[in-house]
Amino acid sequence: MSEALKQDRPSRWVARFAPLIPVGEVLDLACGGGRHSRLLAGLGHAVLAVDRDPAALQASAGEGIRSLHVDLERDGAEREAGWPLQPSRYAGIVVTNYLHRPLLPALLASLAPGGVLIYETFAIGNGQFGKPSNPAFLLESGELLRAVAAAQDMRVIAYEDGHVTEPSPAMVQRLCCRRDDAMAAASPAALAL
Predict the structure, then answer these.
(1) Considering only CA atoms, which of 70, 71, 105, 108 is closest in space to residue 92?
(2) pTM for the whole thing?
């Protein structure tokens, strides 16, 4: 059983900021075993749980949760019907323990005006604690902040970059931001991948 399927308790970061997500559909990207999908559905959201692992999607099933099997990193996947990242679609997006840099602009553009992104994943230096240790899967210092600044219609609510001890020792970056209603309505972001 993968580590993602073993985790059942929501991240404290996600649980802290999930109540800020306005009414509407929420995307749990790379949902793993569905711990955040269940939290979000419990808050009354319609949840789209996305993962490339069929076992993860089966584990994430529940009331208010619709699943989508897709490999987000496969060449050409963004041109297929059912691609989950669509302009201004989601009231909220949650991403934990996953990084595929080419998706960052599309994630931000997929937030509806007023929508909230909650992101938490591993950062440079994590190798001293275990996996992942490959820099391709580790955020560089300030990388999430730079991605949000590039979108120009996002407001950072909270950001952390450093060492955590729970659920296990790791180096992480965490970000919560909201798409500004007025700016998003005036100039929708492009979904360039």
Answers:
(1) 108
(2) 0.89
